[in-house]
Structure formats: structure tokens, C-alpha cells
Amino acid sequence: MSNKDETIFNTLVLYEKVLKNRVKNLKGANIDVVPMDEKKKLDYYSKMYSNDGFRVEYQLPELKKFGRIKQVPYTGLGTFCKEVRGYLAKDVYIDVDMVNCHPVILNWLFVKSGINNSIIEESVLDRNVFLKKHNMTKEAYLSMINTEICQSDDPIIRTLHNQIYTDLLSKMRVQFPEIDKYVRSSRATNKKGKIIANVLQEHEFQILTSMFKFCEKSGVLVDVLMHDGFFIRITDVITEDVIKEKYIDSFEKHVMESFGIPMKFKVKPHDTSIVIKEEPENNEYELMKQEFEKQHCKIINKSFFVKEDDTNLTIFSKQKLETSYSHLNFPKKDGISKFISTWLDDSNMRLYNDIGCYPDNTKCPIDNFNTWRKFSMELITEYTPNEEALQLFLNHIRILCNNDDEIYNYFIKWTGQMIKFPEVKSICPVLISKEGAGKGTFIELMRKMLGSSKVLETTDPSRDVWAHLTLV
Q1: Closest by alpha carbon to 275, among 46, 92, 26?
Q2: Residue 294 and residue 50: Cα distance in Å, rounded?
Q3: 282 DSSP β-pair partners
């Protein structure tokens, strides 16, 4: 996946190319235009900006579990209401959706499972006619599919519901014998409905990820994944008309060939109900601010400022910040102004309420600056094992552990846990020996694996370590 993606355990990261000035416009809009809860999401979203766009995390269905891919709360276009999403995405993205997604998948499952599909197929062929015939809304129809208790008195609808929750459910439990264990429901009365919903969402997820890869191979940039659809980035050669005329058919053909599902796709227009007069963003101060805030922010509760890069963080007091950047100026109509003093007075500067370290970014509070930086090591999938060299290192650790098997085994597991699950707070081992025993050799290896920013070497621990601890 080429869209600057990262895969961290079961999290996918993509970058949205939304215009930064539009986010600013929405944040400053009246409350009757943009509700307060949407403004809170926009505050968090604006802090995700980087050189590559707005950083958005997706939580994938965990191993052996079912369900759809989801954007982590408050981080992407998919979390906003349709009005805000439409304003941000217009002229930037093309919204491509699967047509009648869950009923189409349901019909396919009926056929695959040998269940009479005459009713569900009728709803797929012309949903509007079917709904009118049975006096149902689209919402009521989809709710019927995902709810184990049927609310309709229509005998045809009740027959379809019985097919789903008797015939199909039994087939799914045979195909996925542990599905009851993996699917949870917040309502005890709708466990079966949750199973059906998750089976449909799992197939939806498989189609969506397959389409992501297919688009990548076709030279089409997909930056946003959302339920049963995805957003394609508009470029000089990829326009809405081009997608409609040249790609929709290939999308449908790909899904049919890959899954055997006759899924249709359509381009869905963005909601354009929010209209805000956009101010020009490319003035000198805004350009400098945009570059400056890629690395700098303010932490409100700590009354200091942070400069960040890929591996290091630098803390500034206000006075030190003003001194360090006093040379930055920008032109105005009435002369030259100091950038840093203007930025310090900017009510829309990049800021966070507090600061914390969260290796699992999904657990970082929405208003906290995350100090965690990725390890400098790289994942290597192909290598030539060198057992002799590895054994030298393991023997060295065994010596540090005084040849005690219990301590050695614990220390090896502790080292692995620190790298694989850094968010788990464990113990702090203390190595005590005379000079020359090899403590520094072990620390140097850790420095190379973890990165220098995560290794502190000091000759004055009473100042640099113990002074930062508070006894309770």
C-alpha cells in the first residue's frame, strides 16, 4: 500500500489530503453551521496534520474476529457527519460506494448456502419497488436484517427474516464454529443479529481491502476507507467522469472475479449544505505557521512548548522559544513582523491540553500530545540466521544474570516484552557489577535496537533519574 501507510499490529495508517484551510474555516464557523461535537473532532483532526496530510488510523478486525474496518474515533473523514465530510472532501475526493451492499452480500450467501433466494433477490434487483410493495423504509429493511426479532407483520418479510435467522444462521455457525465466542452484543436480546451483521461486515471488509489493492495497482489513489465505500483522490488524470466512464465497470468485474459477488458501484455526490466563504490561506504568515507547526506545539497544562522530529523531542520555555526563533520574520502590508510573537498570540495555534507517552496511539486521549516515537529498528522478513552470533549475545546476557536460569529466562522475556508490547509497564531491572562486566555492551545493543532517544546514559542518576520520581 503506497499511501504512506504504516501497519502497527492491527492498525492501518493512511493520510488524507484535505485542505488545511477548510478545517480552519469549519473550526471558526458558527455553532448553528457546525455543531460543537463536530468542532471537537475537528480540533483533534487538525492536530493530525503532517507533511503527508492528515494522519488517520484504522482499527482492523482482530485475528479470527469478524467486522468492518473502522477509523479510530475523531481521526478521519469517516468520523464526521455527512455535512462536514462533504465540505472537507469536495473537489478533493470522489466518493465511491457499493450499491445495496449488505442485501447483495446476503443474496450471495443464500445462493452459496443453498437457501431459496427468491425474496432477497427481488429486493436486490429493485430495492425501491420492493420496499414500496412491502411498506418499508430503507432503514427499517436494514434493521430487519440485523435484528433477530422481526417487527414487520408482512408475511413475505417475516419469511425472509426466518430464512436469515434460521437457515443462514445455522449455516454460518457451521462455517465459523467459534463465531458466537468472537461476536459480542451490547444487547443480550440481539446476539444473533450481531452475528449476522458481523458476517456481512466481514465480507464487506474483504471486498474493501481487495478494492484498495486493486486501485493501487490501477494507479488510483485511495486515501479514505469508510464502511461500504472509499474515497478516491482527484488528480489531473483521475476525475469523477473518468471514474464513472473507465473504472466503475472494472471495479465490479474485479469483485465478481475475486469473490463471485455481483456487487455494483456508484459515485455518490458529496453533501454541499455547508457553504463558507473561504479566505485565502497562502499569506506569508500562514505559510510560515504551516511549516513551523509541523514540528512545534504548545502544551497548555505544562506551560511549555515542544519541538518534535521522528526520534527526538525538545522542550522550550516561552522565553527560550522567543529567543531561539527571534530571527524569523514575515512581510506585511505595513512592514515586517516577528513570526514567533505573532504565533504566540495566535488563538488557532497547534496546542494540546497535556502530554503523555502512549505506544498504542489509539489509547492516547484526544487532547494529549503523544511523546512516543517508533523504534528505530526495521522489520526484516528475509534474513540468514546466524545462530553462533546470537548465542554469543545470549551467553553475554546469561553472564549478566549470574548464570541463574530463572533470572535469565525472565530477563529474556522482559526484553522481548519491551520491544513487542512497549505500552505494558513492567519492572525496571538493575544490573550491579564491577566495571568491565559487560553492562555497557548490553546497553549499546539496546540503543541500536530502540534508538538513542529511548536510552538514557548518565553519571548522575540522583539528578537525572531519582529526582524525577515522586514518592507516594
Answers
A1: 26
A2: 6
A3: none
Paired sense of beta strands 313-316 and 354-356, if any: unpaired
* DSSP letter string, 126-155: -HHHHHHHTT--HHHHHHHHT-SS-----H
pLDDT digits 0-9 by tens, 361-381: 778 887 789 888 777 666 677
| Look-up of cell digits 515522586 | 470
Average pLDDT value for residue range 228-238: 92
435 - beta bridge partners? none
Dihedral pair phi/psi, residue 290, rounded to 5°:
-60, -45
CA 92, chain centre distance (Å)? 20
Rounded CA separation 207/211 (Å): 6
> Under the phi-then-psi rule, with left for phi > 0, alpha for psi from -120 to 50, and beta for the rest, what region is 65?
beta
Task: Give dist(CA 437, CA 53) in Å, integer.
Answer: 49
User: Which residue type occupies 464?
Assistant: D
CA distance 367 to 359: 16
The residues, any chain, with a CB within 8 Å of residue 21's CB and separated by 6 or more, are 278, 279, 281, 286
Amino acid at 61: P
**Are 204 and 105 contacting, i.e. CB atoms less than 8 angstroms apart?**
yes
The rounded distance, in Å, linking the Cα atoms of 276 and 123 is 40
Sign of torsion over alpha carbons 293, 295, 300, 305: negative
Amino acid at 238: I
| CB burial readout 203-233, b (16+ within 10 A) else e | bbbbbbeebbebbeeeebbbbbbbbbbbbbb
Give the tens place of pLDDT for each residue, 13-66: 899 999 888 998 898 888 788 888 898 899 889 888 877 788 888 876 654 456
Contact 44, 188 (CB under 8 A): no
Burial degree of 257 (CB within 10 A; 0-12, 13-18, 19+): exposed
Cβ atoms of 140 and 127 within 8 Å: the answer is no
Largest CA-CA distance found in the chain, in angstroms, rounded? 87
**173 contacts 221 by C-beta, under 8 angstroms:** no
Is-contact 423 360, C-beta < 8 A? yes
Would you tell me the crossing angle of helices 248-259 and 191-217 to the nearest 10 degrees?
120
Per the rule left: phi > 0, alpha: psi between -120 and 50, beta: everything else, 425 is: beta
357, 371 Cβ separation under 8 angstroms: yes
